[in-house]
Each structure stands twice: as C-alpha cells, then as structure tokens.
Write a structure and sequence with these properties.
2 copies of one chain form a homodimer.
Chain A (H helix, E strand, L loop, with lengths): L15 E5 L3 E2 L5 E2 L2 E8 L9 E5 L26 E2 L4 E2 L4 E5 L14 E2 L4 E2 L9 H14 L7 E5 L1 H12 L6 E5 L7 H15 L17 H15 L2 H8 L31 H14 L4 H13 L10 H4 L6 E7 L7 H13 L4 E6 L13 H22 L1
Parallel strand pairs in A: 5-8, 5-11, 6-7, 11-12, 12-13, 13-14
Antiparallel strand pairs in A: 1-4, 2-3, 4-8, 9-10
Chain lengths: 399, 399
C-alpha cells in the first residue's frame, strides 16, 4: 500500500465485472436480455456468509464507495468516510458489496454501453430502470455471490430508497435496512428540480436526442446546469453561508463586506463571476459534466421521480411493509431540505403502523443533504454503534 | 368600462412615457445619457400632492401593476390584488405611481431599446443597473410629477429592496417605507440560483453574446430554464403540494396515488412529462420566455446580487438607516424560503438598532415567496389598515 493511502482505508481496490445472461423483466414492461454489473467488495466474507452488507448508491454515485484505484488517486471512493477498517461500516467485521447500478455510467451496462443487438451505443434506447429493477438486479448479484441474507442493506438518498425496496421486495433476505436521508417518494418540488435538470440536458443542442456519443459530442452545458441546480439542493443555506461567507442573522456580527466574498474585491458590473459561490458552482458543474453520462443522469432522475413503494398498496406505505421482517434504522439531517427529517418520519410512522422494529435518528448537521456522505461525528457514532450490534447479533446467532 | 372588468378594478389604464435628458450617473461608473420611463398611475393626486404612493416592481414585474389595458385583457396588472378602489392600496384615497424600471423590457429604456448612438439594440451593452440607480431614476420621475414627498413607497421582493434604498438615499422624501418579502442582501443560495439562471441564458446558443435581436432570434430555452428554476423558488414546497397533489405528511391521510397527479394515469417510462408539476413548469417557462427580454433578466438578477445597502457602512445595516426619517412596515411570509422571515427580521433588527419606528408582521401563508402578490386575507387586512392610518395622518397634517 502506498504511503499516501491512510491506514484506516480499505486500500487499493479493483472493481470486478459480473455478466448476467438471464433476461431481466423491467418495471416498464421492457426486457434487458443480458447485462453486466461492476462491483467492488471490501473486507472478507465469513464462512457462514452472514456478514455481507450491501451498499446502494445515490444519483451520481457508483461502485467505487471506498479505497483507491491507484496509489496516485487524489480522492478515495464516495463513502470512504464510512467504509474501512475500524470505520462505521467496519471492513474488519463485514464484507461490503458495492455495485454500479444498471443504467449507470461507471462500468455496469447503461446508455453509454454497446447494445449487442445494434452494435452501437444504447443511448436513449436504454430502458428506464426503476428502484425496483435495481433491487432485482442486486438480488441476482447476491445469488451469484452465494449470499443468502444480507446482514444489512444500507444507502443514503436514492440509495436509501433502494434499501426500503429491499425490505419490501425480498423481506427474508436482509437482517437490517438502514435508510439515510431518504423519502418515501418525491415531493412536487423534488420532481420540479429533476425536471429542470432533465430539461437543461434535453434542450442542449449537443444532446442530439440522446445520440450524442455517435455524434462525438456530449451535452456539456446541459449537464453542467443540471449539476449546478442539483448541487444547490444538496447543500443547506447554512452550509453555503459557511462556505462562501456569512449572512447577518445577527446584524451586529459585523465585519466589512460579510456575506460576499468577492474574488476581485470589486463588483464586475457585468456578467462575470462576482461571488465565490458562482465560481464554485461552475467548477462543480464543469467537473461533473466531464465525468458523467447525460443519458444516465436522465435515467437516475426518472428513477427518483417514479419511486413510490406505496403505489401497489393503494397509497398505504404501512401496507407496503407488511411482510418486512428486518429491523430498520432511519437517519435524517436537520438542514437537509431535499429530503428533510419529516420525510424520514413519514417512513418511520408507516413502519410503526405496520408494527415493525424501527430506530430513528435525526442528526443536527449544517451540511444539508450532503451530510450523509460526510464524517458528521454523531452520525458516524450512531452508525458505528448500530452496526457493532448487528455484528454481535450475527456472532450470537452463529454460536 | 367593459362589463368584464370587475367593479373594484382601476379599470382601463394607459401607460405614459416620460423622457429624461439629464445624464444618469450609474453605480457602475457608466453614464446613461438619456432614457425613457414608462409609467402608469391610478387614482388622483390631491391638491397638496401629498397622497402619492410609489410602487416598485420585482424581477419580472413592470409598470402595469393594476387594471386592464383593454377590455379583452384576460388578466389585470401584477398587483391588482392590492391596488384599486377600496383595496389595500386604495385608489379612492391615493395616487399610485408604478413604473417599469430602467433596464426593463416593458417600455422603459433597456437592452431591447435602440441605442441612439449606434442606432441598433443596446443588447449586452446596456449598462448594469443597481437598485440605487433605479431609485435615482424614480426620484427624477417624482420630480417630474411635482411630488415633494411620497406618502409611501411600497414593494415586494426586489421591489422591497428599492423601498429600503429610498429610505436611505432620500430619507426626507417618503413618509412610509413598506418592504414586503425582502432581504437586506442575498444569501449565497440566492446568488447560486441567480447564477444558474444566468448560466442557462448565456449558454443558450441563441444568446449570441447578448446580440440575439440583431440575429432575429432569442435564447428561448435558456430563458425558459431560468424561469423554471426561478418559479420553483417562488413557490413553497407546501404550495406545490397543494397545486399538484398532496404528499403524505400524515401517511394515514390515504387515497390512491396521492402526491402524483399523473396526466395519463400511467408512467411514461420515458422522458415524457409524467407529473403535473412538470407540465406546469414547462408552461410557465414557455410563456415567460416569449414575453421577457433575456438581457433584462440578466440585469435584474445582477441588481439582486449586488443589493447590499450596508456595503457603504462597513457592513453595518443600522448605520445605513441612520438618516432615515420615515416609518417602516416590514412584512414576511412563513413559507417563503427565497427571502424567509429571518431575512426581514434582520432588517427589523437593524432599524430598531438605528432607533427607527418599525412595524413587523409575519404572515402565516402557504404560498411561499409568491404570497406577496396574492390576496392572502391577513396580509391584505394588515396592509389595508396600515395605509388607512397613513391616509388619516395625511388628512390630519393637512387640516
């Protein structure tokens, strides 16, 4: 291991690809004949194969949840704050499985993959996949890995929705469902923001109705805008203030020019960037647009919009959980305005109504929706304690 | 008056144009040699010229605040809920002046006007105007109308910022400053949303660096996206829920398919519109993009970003108000997340600190930032009562 890799990291990791030949019937009615899933695992599967944890990723995530792909990587996987030896999801205790979801753009079959039938990119012809479809494909992966029951399925945001779906679709196949910063379904405002993102991509002239790869281009501006909008919703107002200058809630908290951290010290009186938050958003948008597939982004937002497990139960979410036999942990963050605490409480209430065993934790954190990815101390401690108990249960069961 | 025009309307109105020859020194250092302001007035100026109220408009507003331009108009002016005979801003008592701000696109000189020097559209060469510049131009209009002192200056959102600037720039020239749903300056999140709007316009290939009119086109998609984003921030999450279907805060408030009001009853499993909120946003964006000048939109968002009257007082807002001699009424709305109540309280605190006479009212209203335009009963009653008192003061003063 390189000297630059921290000792509490899972270290260097190599993704693996699994091919699946059995056709997958999708929620849309379409069928995916065959597909690949790209997977990373951390830690060691025990002899009973009882210590596996499935990690589900959110909108822009992928299989690379922890560790480094090379010693020169500047950044580890997206959930490295939580996954590693001695960390909350302790790879000394658990075997952690993390995959790139179907329709993704980091290795698993998706719009940027070659469609064997046409020998060109799937592009916009890649079918819309739903949270239920993802969980189905994750179930097949579980089977392939010879795992009978996940010790836990865990995820934040869209990942937390997959967790809920696991508890409904395969109630016997997981011990714990840990759903973080999620919602039982999107609000009209959530859908509205997604639609702005989609519209910005689709209306980019370089989108070419989704066939941009054949045209050797991509809708950079559209993706950039989509990410800029998304990014605003991931951060709380207070997190932005902390990052880009204070606003005066207490107007006596004086200081010159507070609230505006000018790059030049002077206003441009033009359309140039005047405030740091503008260049920050540009940077985030640029970076994202160069590394993410636009068709995948569209699919992911539709999966979010469509998520509503109550829909097969006449809108009664409690009924949806009727057959669930796992234990539940729900976590929300105080300043998350994308999926605020009340949305997690809706899930908690439905679970209580269904008579399920549920723990719920609302974490005071300034970072907004993004908090689920960050080393917020109380959050990390809570997850650590909970998963230690999960491990003790496994040990007790085995002995 | 047409039978279709309600009896509590100011009725048919005709805008007037005022030409100003005296060069206007702008905050940016640039100079506008001459300009026109388009103005509507409602009610009658009394002999003492003491009953005039100036109405300041917000980002997408203009001079047409009340009444109808023709008997076949489907909609009245943007603040018809508040302005008219017997209404809160009672045109039986007051002479109401409403203008299109400089840089606007509804008649006053702006980017879509012809620059006499070049004999073509100003376009992107129209100088960036600030709230301070607007107030300066409104001051000249006041002079032209022979008004010595406004009984009140009133406005919501960006209009409320002009009200604050009046109290600072021309402290002797207004009796009451009524600032509704405003903020002492933008938050980083506010600026971020504005930057998304600007970026969507500027990155539209039809923008042509602002010279779209010469190219016989306009950045329709960019403006549409800008308006879609803006519109989301004007509505509260709860207002959207009310408009487009409920979300289950109480999950027992059952009913099938709640929270999603599908157009077709079925999901499209494609990129079509699935939810009413999507088609609503498209409609709002489309309508706006066909009626608003993109360069004006850019200018208006910069005026918002730049607004911070404390900047000349080392960040001390109380000091900015030191010379103000008017009375203040601040109003905010509980679900406004663009300029939430705490932003109005910052202004109130600064005014109290400066020893000014200030009333503050926080209105419980579901409609978010948009509430200031709507006939929210408690809001209307409060404004009505306050302005009746203003009129009594005038009468007492005159007698």
């Amino acid at each position: 291991m390189s000297a630059s890799i921290p000792t509490d990291s899972v270290g260097l990791v190599t993704p693996q690809s699994y091919h699946f030949d059995e056709p997958l019937d999708l929620r849309s009615g379409k069928v995916l004949d065959a597909y690949d899933l790209t997977v990373e695992t951390y830690g060691t599967l025990n002899g009973e194969k009882s210590n596996a944890i499935l990690v589900c990723h959110a909108l822009s995530g992928d299989h690379h949840a922890a560790g480094y792909h090379s010693a020169t990587d500047k950044k580890p996987g997206w959930w490295d704050a939580c996954i590693g030896p001695g960390k909350a999801i302790d790879t000394d205790l658990f075997f952690v499985v993390s995959l790139n979801n179907l329709g993704g753009c980091a290795g698993s079959t998706g719009p940027a993959s070659i469609n064997p039938k046409t020998e060109t990119f799937y592009g916009p012809d890649f079918p819309v996949v739903t949270v239920r479809d993802w969980v189905k494909s994750q179930f097949r992966l579980m089977d392939r890995l010879g795992i009978e029951k996940w010790a836990a399925v865990i995820g934040g945001s869209l990942g937390g929705m997959q967790v809920l779906r696991w508890a409904i679709s395969y109630p016997q196949r997981l011990g714990h469902a840990i759903s973080i910063a999620a919602a039982p379904k999107l609000s009209a405002q959530n859908i509205a923001f997604n639609e702005v993102a989609r519209h910005s991509i689709i209306s980019d002239p370089n989108f070419h109705a989704g066939h941009y790869l054949q045209n050797n281009t991509y809708p950079k501006q559209g993706l950039m805008l989509a990410r800029m909008v998304g990014h605003i919703t991931y951060l709380s107002d207070s997190a932005m203030r902390a990052k880009f200058g204070k606003t005066v809630t207490d107007f006596e908290a004086t200081g010159t020019n507070f609230g505006r951290d000018l790059r030049t010290g002077k206003l441009s009186f033009g359309l140039n960037v005047d405030f740091q938050v503008e260049s920050y958003l540009h940077y985030q948008g640029e970076r994202f647009s160069e590394n993410f597939d636009a068709n995948t982004y569209l699919l992911m937002t539709k999966a979010l919009d469509y998520f509503d497990p109550s829909v097969d139960y006449e809108g009664n979410l409690a009924h949806a959980f009727a057959n669930s036999s796992c234990k539940f942990l729900l976590i929300s963050f105080s300043t998350d305005w994308r999926f605020p605490p009340e949305r997690s409480r809706e899930i908690v209430n439905a679970l209580l109504k269904a008579g399920k065993e549920v723990s719920y934790l609302e974490i005071e954190a300034d970072q907004g929706h993004d908090a689920f990815l960050l080393p917020v101390p109380r959050y990390i401690r809570a997850l650590t304690t909970y998963l230690k108990r999960v491990h003790q249960e496994l040990a007790a069961h085995a002995s």
